[in-house]
Structures are given as structure tokens and as C-alpha cells.
Amino acid sequence: MAQAGPVLTLRTPGPGDEDVARAAQAALQAEGFGFGCAAPDERWSDFLTRLERDRRGLDLPPGWVPATLLYADVDGRVVGQSSVRHVLNEQLLRIGGHIGYAVLPAFRRRGYATEILRQSLVVARAAGVGRALVTCDDDNLGSIAVIERCGGRRDPEWPGDEGVRRYWIA
């Protein structure tokens, strides 16, 4: 019998994740993306408390919505992240959607993005999201393939004039 490969799990950030999160932030920042991490002047414990309050929708800054931030973990290593927005505001309806995800450069092309999105859809449904909106840049062929592999259907009503594709996943 063939042995299964490494198992990816989505989990909440914990007390021991600060160093790996800051390294992930630096790796993705070089590509113009962010990673769920504390601000430079924010204590890690305060960041974790803020994430829980964000998840519960408490004291959100203007324009923010309740959201769950999760780290993608494979064999104890953080390989990426997911942000699941429980509702959409006007901005997220245009660009951003219910789910944003990222895989760290060193872990790409291993199927992790597909699994992150697949598991994020389960989290979104548990938060009350029926149809999930997922967006990506028109030129991001990797994300296009991932979204379509997870059942994404292009939004026929979206003009696509902002360099962004919108997909709905039922």
C-alpha cells in the first residue's frame, strides 16, 4: 500500500509562531504580498488576541469584516496562510473576496495552494458563507488553475477591467 504524502492542515497562529511568521512576511513582501503577522511594533500576544477579536467581529477597524486567519502547516512547518472573510463589504466584493491565500515561495508547486483553498472553503461554509467569492490577478496562472480546480466559475457579470478575475465557488 502506498503511503500518503505530507498532510496539510490549517490552524490558528499560536504563541510559538512569531519567528516563522515574520520570516514568511519578509519572503512574501519581496513579491508585493503580505502574510498574517503582527505589526513591527505589536507584541505577538496582542496580535493573537486581535486575531480572535477579528474572527468574532469585535471592535473591527472601519472597512474591516469578521475574518479568520489560518496558517497552513505541513509536518510542523508553516508553508502558507489563508484569510477567510465571513462577509463581504463593497471593496471585498470588487477585489479580495471571501478567501485570500498564499504559499511561501520555497513551498510552491507541491499542490499546497489547492489544499489551502479547499480547506478554506470548509472554514468559510462553517462561518455561514454559501457561495464563496475568490479573486486573483488576470496574469496569475497558478491561482487561476487552483481556483478552477476547486470548482471556481468565472463571474460572467464582472467586466474584468481592473486586471482582476472573479470566481464564485458553490
The residue-averaged pLDDT reads 92
Largest sheet: 4 strands, antiparallel
General form: globular
Q: Classify the beta-strand content into a percent band.
A: 15-25%
Instruction: Give the neighbour order of strands across the main sheet.
Output: 1-2-3-4
- The helix-strand sequence is EHHEEHEHEHEE
Number of helices: 5
Helix proportion: 25-40%
Total E-strand runs = 7
Rg, nearest Å: 16 Å
End-to-end separation in angstroms reads 34 Å
Structural class: alpha+beta
Unreliable runs: none
Please characterize this protein's 3D structure.
It is a single chain. With 170 residues, this protein is an alpha+beta fold. It has 5 helices and 7 strands. A 4-stranded antiparallel beta sheet has the order 1-2-3-4, with helices on both faces. The N and C termini lie far apart (34 Å). The model has no long low-confidence stretch (mean pLDDT 92).
